[in-house]
Amino acid sequence: MAQNGDFLTILLCDPHFKNREVRVVDECLTFFFAGSQTSSNATQNLIFALCKHPEYQDRILAELDREIVQPHLKTLREKKEKCEKVSDLNVLNLINYENNSDLVFYTSCFNESLRMMPPVYYSSSIRMSEDVQAGNLRIRKGDPISINMGRMQNHPSEWQQPDKFIPERFDPKSEYFLTPSGKRRNTFSFSPFLGGQRI
What we know:
Blueprint: H1 7-13, H2 21-52, H3 54-78, H4 91-94, H5 104-116, E1 126-127, E2 132-134, E3 137-139, E4 144-145, H6 149-152
Antiparallel strand pairs: 1-4, 2-3
């Protein structure tokens, strides 16, 4: 199975999809529509959270100015290109995949909105093809299971004050980064889209 590559390559190398064009097309359409809906919901949830917490809006705008706008204005001045004020810039066009990693606080806010209000609360259900023992849980062949991501990401043993919007919990230097008992959180306690190759 392909470990890397684009989505279509991964599908075409997967034995479940190999030489099954209809299944590949169906999977692509599912991901296209599911992806557009989850992106839309995640963005709406972030806007909703920031409307309730305007103090975080100010921090995001300051970070955007510091990390994206000011460096761009400096570059324009060095090139002697005319740009007198920030409103002359189309700020959204300045953000790209290379520099969006500089927006650390914005990313924390986005992750916190994903944690509190995941776009998908429950995974689709699957049936086990054989008996499985997962810790103390025994899952029998044929049993349908699904994962409650909303509960997993808001579990009080993993998150301090899980009902509050606290973006700092994604900052390793913050006291909120740890569980209420002071330990590291379980890796899967924040999995808004679960995992696997198609993540």
